[in-house]
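Sorry, explain these tokens?

___
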Amino acid sequence: MLVFEDFLLLDAAGPICALEVANRASGRIAYRTHVVAVRAQSVRSSSGVSIDAKSLAEVRSFDTLIVAGGNGAERAGDDPLVRKFVQTAFRRGCRIASVCSGTYILAAAGVLKGRRATTHWIEARKLAQRYRDIQMDSDRIFIKQGKLWTSAGVTAGIDVTLALIEEDLGELVARNVAKGLVVYYRRPGGQSQFSTLLGAAGPQSRFGATLAWAREHLTERLSVATLAAKSALSVRQFSRAFSLDVGMSPAKAIEGLRVEAARSRVESGSSQLESIARRTGFGSVDRMRRAFLRAYGHTPQQLRRVARTER
């Protein structure tokens, strides 16, 4: 587990705990975990809690490298010692996984060039602009490309570690680890289920409660007049203030909520598309299809096929 000054504690602790539980679930010492940093020292996380690490030079024999993320990830990626360590592990054929913004470090080392990758949805656009030779997919919980794995924000480190455990020890052990951690064995949906509402209306937004209400009433006719009344504003005041505060029109925001609610159902594969379209307020599969193309560039059928293949 590679850490650095100002790493996010859960990015490291989540995978480490999952590997610990895997040892118990498999009945043997399947994993021996070492925490490494540029120098042997106590490395401070962004929370202020520190973790003891060995130096990169001390740990030469390993089969899997997991790279934490956090506020210090970009600075760590600029360190030539860190980049060389990742490059050497890649050339040796090690399995490498990044958690959250740890993708920056893999990108800086050049190992993601020409490959698909993901990271926390907040960082995805910035990373894609900085590293244009990487195919960023900001909606995946994790992506596997050969021996390279990238994952989304924070708790997605547990998701990708469960996948690594399944690859090593089989589905039964991985499922038991998930039960032990009280998490999904395979989390449904992508990052979009978390990002649109949170990103559109931050904690200081005056329209967060309105959007949260709308998300629970997607089958209703969510007109601007309805939303304005819910916000105790006139239609004219609401339309102007909403666009300034949220950064998109009310209609676009409602479509976004419907699309993300529909996507998790589409990818789970448990319902027919006609039923999903009705339950998320689209009314018809054709309207839902057009909204998916605007949001993701793919139809619901295409996303369902991808999700089925990944499962």
About this structure: The longest strand covers residues 50-55. The longest helix spans residues 250-268.
